[in-house]
Amino acid sequence: MPESLISLKDVCVHIGAKVALHDVNLNLVSGEIVTIVGPNGSGKSTMLRTLVGAITPTAGTITRRPNLRIGYVPQKLHIDPTLPLTVRRFLSLPRRVSNAVATRALEEAGAGDLIARQMTDLSGGQFQRVLLARALLNDPHILILDEATQGLDQPGSADFYAQIAQVREAHGCAVLMVSHELHVVMAASDRVICLNGHICCEGAPETVVSAPEYRALFGSGTHGALALYRHEHSHTHDDSCAHDHDHSAEERT
Ligand code: ADP
Ligand code: MG
């Protein structure tokens, strides 16, 4: 049996008066690749931030393997355009790392040539690779990526996913990612989790694609990004802490 790295049990997260996540159960084991899909506002980023410890659940429990190391690539990272900051210095924030460690991480992320560049001069794809390098600095057991290819063009995003596959091969780490590019990531995933405030369905990619819950959210095709913005409710939520679940975020999209 593969080792359990981190698990969520009956997790609910309220943000203000709003229920962002409810009754979430998840177990991530070593080496697996798991993709989370879901409409905008469905709690994907909230779930990742809960896993990395940035958000404390309102209810439920998180169990982490002792000394678990997580590498996290957030959805958004704003760098002040007026602030001079080289890639090398960025990698030493907030914790100083040696040149050797910084260089190795950049090479693993396919960004070995960027070490002396200014952060604000990087292209979208280069910036994401530097974020990936930063996530690799502590030799993580799990790499968590939140829409890491958002804003990249199709070849750029394919390159980035190929890099992730290489990193996983080299590190043997588990990968948990949020992606809108179903057609790209589904084939590479061991498991897909379909989220809409709670886990609607999960399983092997081909199982999830044919699940009624998934089809209700994304339509019957696997058209990836386009399908994700269409969202209809064909199932009811009768879970205990879902009383004020609000779908305004999806309706805005
Ligand atoms: P996703 O990543 O799936 O688009 P999020 O996890 O970012 O969704 O958000 C889930 C819900 O929580 C949304 O309805 C969003 O509006 C709300 N939310 C997230 N972060 C905040 C915040 N800082 N303040 C208020 N509401 C938030
Ligand atoms: Mg998000």
Low-confidence runs of at least 5 consecutive residues: 222-234, 236-253
Annotation field: number of helices? 10
Helical proportion, percent range = 25-40%
Q: What percentage of amino acids are in beta strands? A: 15-25%
The molecules bound to the chains, other than polymers, are: adenosine-5'-diphosphate, magnesium ion
The spatial strand order of the largest sheet comes to 5-6-7-3-8-9
Largest sheet: 6 strands, mixed
Gyration radius from CA atoms, angstroms:
18 Å
Order of helices and strands: EEEHEEHHHEHEHEEHHHH
Q: Which structural class do the helices and strands define?
A: alpha/beta
What's the overall average pLDDT, rounded? 85
Q: What is the number of beta strands?
A: 9
Shape descriptor reads globular
Record the SSE blueprint.
Blueprint: E1 4-15, E2 18-29, E3 33-37, H1 44-52, E4 59-64, E5 70-73, H2 87-91, H3 99-108, H4 124-136, E6 142-146, H5 154-171, E7 174-178, H6 182-188, E8 191-195, E9 199-203, H7 205-209, H8 212-218, H9 225-228, H10 248-252
Parallel strand pairs: 3-7, 3-8, 5-6, 6-7
Antiparallel strand pairs: 1-2, 1-4, 8-9
Bound molecules: adenosine-5'-diphosphate (ADP) and magnesium ion.
Adenosine-5'-diphosphate binds at residues 15-16, 18, 20, 38, 40-46, 249.
